[in-house]
Amino acid sequence: MRRVHYDKVKDLMPPEGFDAQVDAVVSEWGGLLDRDSAGMLVVERAGRSVASFTRVADLEEGMEASLRASVVGISPVREFSRQDGTRGRVVNLELRDDSGFCRFPLWDEDVALVERGRIRPRSVLRALDCFVKRTSWGLEVSRGKFGSVVVEEG
After folding, report:
1. CATH classification of 56-151 is 1.20.1260.10, yes or no?
2. DSSP 25
3. Residue 18 phi, psi dihedral angles, 5° rounding
4. Are 78 and 111 in contact (CB under 8 A)?
5. CA distance to 71, 107, 127, 142, per residue, from 152 (Å)
6. pLDDT at 154
7. pLDDT tens readout for residues 95-112
8. Average pLDDT over all residues of the chain
9. Where are the chain's structural domains?
């Protein structure tokens, strides 16, 4: 436990300092947090992310993944009719990290992120709790039901 979280802040503090901060967080929360959760809070308070991201090159069909990648392409927004007659919208992003690229569709309400300019070329996204499938266009990563897309502030 400690090693995973400490590795993210080892350039900021010695192991003893990390342990002391973990103990302080456990105490601050009245013992309601375990050391693992407290370690995550110490990492976040130090300005680092506790999330683990999968490299695009390591994606495989059927896996769940979280990515951190740059937007290098955006398709036009497309509207369509579903089989049940409702209208839908989709825009496809091309995401790239240092290991490769993948397609990332945004559906329906998420399309507004592009329309409002929140997502644009060179934006850096964190796509959390996504699923991976292979399509005729290559690997596609989609936000899952409980997933989220976070645009990093530049």
Report:
1. no
2. H
3. -65, -50
4. no
5. 11, 20, 11, 18
6. 56
7. 999 999 999 999 999 999
8. 92
9. 2-45, 56-151
